[in-house]
Each structure stands twice: as structure tokens, then as C-alpha cells.
């Protein structure tokens, strides 16, 4: 076997050396085998589901490649023609695919960073007291992505200083920009103004690594202390009624997290459109984009120098708000995820599905497909029971103009990238909500109760039965209850970033 003892990636060795200086007490190397297995699990899922062009056949126990090699899985290893690998980077290197070189580096970073998180993240019991604490409880990152903890260019010191799993206070910098050199949309907070200047929040990593390329440096270093949320580059400034999404021009998980000029230009208008649309629905609301701003370089908003301000979600007395991802995340100290402590699994899941499905499926019928995965859906609980949903992050929603028109909604003047066909609307919602959010909830609760997909399927049928009949509703219902469920091909997307393909998983309702 190419084992944990025989193979230590260069990045793992670098992290260990840095930790010996910064945090020598952390049991980093003890956490490497588990991190390797966790990332390998995610990678194997991609090989089982994604339409990878070098795979010619999949059977129940093996995958055959175009060159005749055979892949099998047993415990924490993947074998290539019988030779086992327990490190995802070593496995990809052994495949020898030129297009996998980038992914090899990314999974190596994911392993190193996940081991660091598991070694150093503090453990808090459920329920945490604040939304940031709930967001910071998710130690392993994306539950399905092989690049779940990849933060390209981050050192150990960067992870410790900025990673939400370490619960730091991040001192955001402020960059003063004259109004004639800045594009501003919406109600920019007075706290982020100085005279006639706009004060643009800048992540300190961005200040150190990107601002010098533009000949800039912060005018107010460290002036805005904030708690990082699950997305790392989105933070909750202490004592403010809003959150800020900063530009971070490096790859986190699978994308460079800068902010396009288009997002600055359209984000507030799209937020207003969605706010008014979801106001017609029960148990569902929007975390609104209050404002957005970007520095103008040569007359155009620059994606490295931008920020979006969101209103903090409103929570009533006795309510707890948290991302759904926090319910399914296994605690760093071990044991069951918080979801397992909320009562009878079948009853809880039925309540959740009865609350979530009507608004999500109605919006789909109206031509609005949300990116409704576990990070974007905030769940409001009262005494552990699901009460309502709050949706956040508008960049990846998709709209169907014909369905909007049929529902009496006007096209909100968005760029063409938001406009998709009906099949792509369905794929957007089904891949994010059913293949990700619901799969995570059912998979977590399945350790304690069987037949949970039947519970969800019953609520799907109830939701559709209560909706006004129409062509869109009939088509969506038939697809959801009878066709394979689309899911994002997360591994293929790293091997071929230009792909527009979907992966598919068996339909649990059919």
C-alpha cells in the first residue's frame, strides 16, 4: 500500500514544520489518516457519479478506465489494478492524467488543511449561542467536494488567523475610496463612510497578497473586527446589524472568490426582486443584500476590490438560526451531529420537508431556481423544531423568463447568465436541495431511522397536490418523482472547469 506512513505530501510536511513553530501542541500528524480518508471518500464519490471521459464502465464493485486499468474501493483505500492508495493525491498521481495535476494539488491542500482543522478547532456543544458560532462549527468543510478544505496559497498561519473553524476575530481593513472612483449600489452603511469617501472592507489576506498589485494599501488597517462565517470571506462585524462579503482573490474549494462587477451592479436589484417574490410565500424569507461597492480601475469595477453588505438575519425570542450544514456536521470531538439530538428522526424530517418544499417548489414553478444547498439555507429553529427558512447568496440563482411571465412576474433586468431553460432550472434546484441538502439530512438521520426518503417523498407529493395545476408543476413533479436526480459533478468540474455537464444519482422517490 502507498500508505500514510510511506507518503506524506510536501504540503503536509510544510504544515507540520510551520506548526512546530506556531502551535507545537496540536496533534497534527495524528489527524492526517482520517483527513486523507475523508477526502478520498469525496473523490471516490466523484469517480462513481461524474461523467468522467476516461471511465468506460462502472459496476457495483469496480470502475474500468479507458486504458483497461481497474479501480476498486475497500475501506480507506482505492486500488489501481490491485495496488492500494490511501492518499488522494498519491492516487491521482498514479493515474497519470495530465488534466489531474491541478486537482492533485488541491486535494493535497484539502487533506493538510482538514487535518489542521481537526487538530486545532475548538469544540463547543450544541446549541451554540450565536449564528457565527454555529457557522464556525463546520470543521470538515463541504461534505461532498474533494477540494472541501482547499484554500490555495494559504499558509498554516493564514488558516489559523482566518479559518472560521478556529473561531478567530478577523480585523478587516478599510480602504478609503473617493465616490468618483467607486461604484456603489444600494444603501451603503454610514459606518462605512468617511466624509465623501466610501470605506471599502478588505480582508487582511487580500490586503497582504492582492492590494499591492494595484499599488494600494489599507487606509484604516484592522479597523473593523469581525467574526468569519462558514464561507470564510463573509464576516459578521462585531456590533453591526449587517454582514460583509469581501473579495478574496484565491481559490476556496472550487472557485476564486472575488466579486465581479456584474454582482456589484445587479446584486441589490436582484435582492429586491427576490424579496418581493418570496414575500408571497409562507415560512420563507431572504437575507437581503443591502449594498455593494467596487473600486473603479480604468473606469470599470474591479473584482479584486469589491464588497457586498447583507442585512443580518432577523431572529425572534426563543429562536435559533443556523445554516443547515451546522446540523449535519460531525463535531470535532466525535459523536453524532447536532441533528441527531432534535427528536424523532421521521417526525423532525417530515416537519422540515413540509416547511421547506412548498416555497422551493413553488418558486421553481414560477421560474426561480435557488442554489438551495446546506450553506445557503439558514434554518430557524424553536425548541429544536423547524419553523422557517432564510435564503442567502444570490450569485448562483437562475431564472426562467417564460415561467416568470406566466406567474405574473416581470423579468428583473438581470444579465443573460441568469436566463436558463426549464430543464436547467430543475437541475439547479434538484442538485442543490435534493442531492445535497436533503441527502445530508437523510444520511445523517439514517444512522437512527430507516425509510426516511419515503417520508420526504410523501411531503413532495403533498406539496405538489396543494399547488395550482399547470404545465410547469406537472413537468417538475414528473421529473422529481421519476427521473434520476441531477447533482453537481464536483470532481469533473476540477478536471474540466469548462464543463456544463451534470452527474446523476438514483432517484430515491421512484
From TrEMBL:
<dbReference type="InterPro" id="IPR037455">
    <property type="entry name" value="LucA/IucC-like"/>
</dbReference>
<dbReference type="InterPro" id="IPR007310">
    <property type="entry name" value="Aerobactin_biosyn_IucA/IucC_N"/>
</dbReference>
<protein>
    <submittedName>
        <fullName>Siderophore synthetase component</fullName>
    </submittedName>
</protein>
<dbReference type="GO" id="GO:0019290">
    <property type="term" value="P:siderophore biosynthetic process"/>
</dbReference>
<dbReference type="GO" id="GO:0016881">
    <property type="term" value="F:acid-amino acid ligase activity"/>
</dbReference>
<feature type="domain" description="Aerobactin siderophore biosynthesis IucA/IucC N-terminal">
    <location>
        <begin position="133"/>
        <end position="329"/>
    </location>
</feature>
<dbReference type="Pfam" id="PF06276">
    <property type="entry name" value="FhuF"/>
</dbReference>
<feature type="domain" description="Aerobactin siderophore biosynthesis IucA/IucC-like C-terminal">
    <location>
        <begin position="347"/>
        <end position="498"/>
    </location>
</feature>
<dbReference type="InterPro" id="IPR022770">
    <property type="entry name" value="IucA/IucC-like_C"/>
</dbReference>
<comment type="similarity">
    <text>Belongs to the IucA/IucC family.</text>
</comment>
<comment type="pathway">
    <text>Siderophore biosynthesis.</text>
</comment>
<dbReference type="Pfam" id="PF04183">
    <property type="entry name" value="IucA_IucC"/>
</dbReference>
Amino acid at each position: 500500500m502507498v500508505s500514510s506512513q510511506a507518503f506524506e505530501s510536501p504540503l503536509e510536511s510544510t504544515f507540520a514544520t510551520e506548526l512546530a513553530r506556531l502551535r507545537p501542541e496540536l496533534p497534527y500528524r495524528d489527524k492526517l489518516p482520517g483527513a486523507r480518508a475523508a477526502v478520498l471518500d469525496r473523490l471516490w464519490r466523484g469517480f462513481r457519479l461524474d461523467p468522467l471521459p476516461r471511465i468506460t464502465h462502472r459496476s457495483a464493485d469496480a470502475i474500468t478506465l479507458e486504458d483497461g486499468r481497474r479501480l476498486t474501493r475497500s475501506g480507506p483505500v482505492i486500488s489501481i489494478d490491485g495496488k492500494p492508495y490511501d492518499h488522494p493525491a498519491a492516487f491521482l498521481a498514479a493515474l497519470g492524467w495530465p488534466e489531474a495535476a491541478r486537482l492533485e494539488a488541491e486535494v493535497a491542500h484539502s487533506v493538510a488543511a482538514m487535518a489542521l482543522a481537526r487538530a486545532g478547532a475548538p469544540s463547543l456543544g450544541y446549541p451554540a449561542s450565536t449564528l457565527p458560532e454555529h457557522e464556525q462549527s463546520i470543521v470538515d468543510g463541504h461534505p461532498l467536494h474533494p477540494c472541501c478544505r482547499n484554500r490555495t496559497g494559504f499558509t498554516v498561519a493564514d488558516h489559523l488567523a482566518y479559518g472560521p473553524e478556529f473561531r478567530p476575530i478577523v480585523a478587516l481593513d478599510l480602504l478609503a475610496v473617493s465616490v468618483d472612483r467607486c461604484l456603489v449600489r444600494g444603501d451603503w452603511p454610514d459606518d462605512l463612510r468617511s466624509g465623501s469617501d466610501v470605506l471599502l472592507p478588505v480582508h487582511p489576506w487580500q490586503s497582504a497578497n492582492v492590494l499591492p498589485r494595484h499599488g494600494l494599501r489599507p487606509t484604516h488597517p484592522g479597523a473593523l473586527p469581525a467574526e468569519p462565517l462558514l464561507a470564510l470571506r463573509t464576516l459578521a462585524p462585531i456590533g453591526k446589524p449587517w454582514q460583509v462579503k469581501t473579495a478574496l482573490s484565491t481559490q476556496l474549494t472550487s472557485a476564486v472568490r472575488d466579486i465581479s462587477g456584474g454582482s456589484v451592479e445587479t446584486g441589490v436589484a436582484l435582492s429586491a426582486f427576490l424579496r418581493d417574490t418570496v414575500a408571497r410565500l409562507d415560512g420563507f424569507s431572504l437575507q437581503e443584500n443591502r449594498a455593494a461597492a467596487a473600486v473603479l480601475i480604468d473606469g470599470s469595477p474591479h473584482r479584486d476590490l469589491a464588497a457586498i453588505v447583507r442585512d443580518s438575519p432577523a431572529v425572534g425570542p426563543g429562536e435559533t438560526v443556523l445554516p443547515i450544514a451546522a446540523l449535519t456536521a460531525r463535531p470535532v470531538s466525535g459523536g453524532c451531529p447536532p441533528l441527531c439530538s432534535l427528536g424523532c428522526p421521521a417526525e423532525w424530517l417530515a416537519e422540515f420537508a413540509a416547511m421547506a418544499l412548498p416555497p422551493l417548489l413553488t418558486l421553481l414553478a414560477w421560474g426561480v431556481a435557488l442554489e438551495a444547498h446546506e450553506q445557503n439555507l439558514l434554518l430557524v429553529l424553536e425548541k429544536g423544531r423547524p419553523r422557517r427558512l432564510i435564503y442567502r447568496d444570490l450569485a448562483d440563482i437562475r431564472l426562467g423568463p417564460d415561467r416568470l411571465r406566466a406567474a405574473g412576474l416581470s423579468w428583473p433586468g438581470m444579465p443573460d447568465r441568469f436566463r436558463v431553460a426549464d430543464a436547467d432550472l430543475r437541475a439547479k434546484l434538484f442538485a442543490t436541495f435534493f442531492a445535497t441538502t436533503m441527502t445530508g439530512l437523510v444520511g445523517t438521520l439514517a444512522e437512527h431511522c430507516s425509510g426516511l426518503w419515503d417520508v420526504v417523498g410523501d411531503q413532495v407529493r403533498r406539496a405538489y397536490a396543494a399547488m395550482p395545476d399547470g404545465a410547469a408543476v406537472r413537468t417538475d413533479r414528473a421529473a422529481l418523482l421519476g427521473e434520476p436526480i441531477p447533482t453537481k459533478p464536483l470532481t469533473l468540474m476540477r478536471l474540466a472547469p469548462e464543463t456544463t455537464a451534470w452527474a446523476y444519482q438514483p432517484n430515491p422517490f421512484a
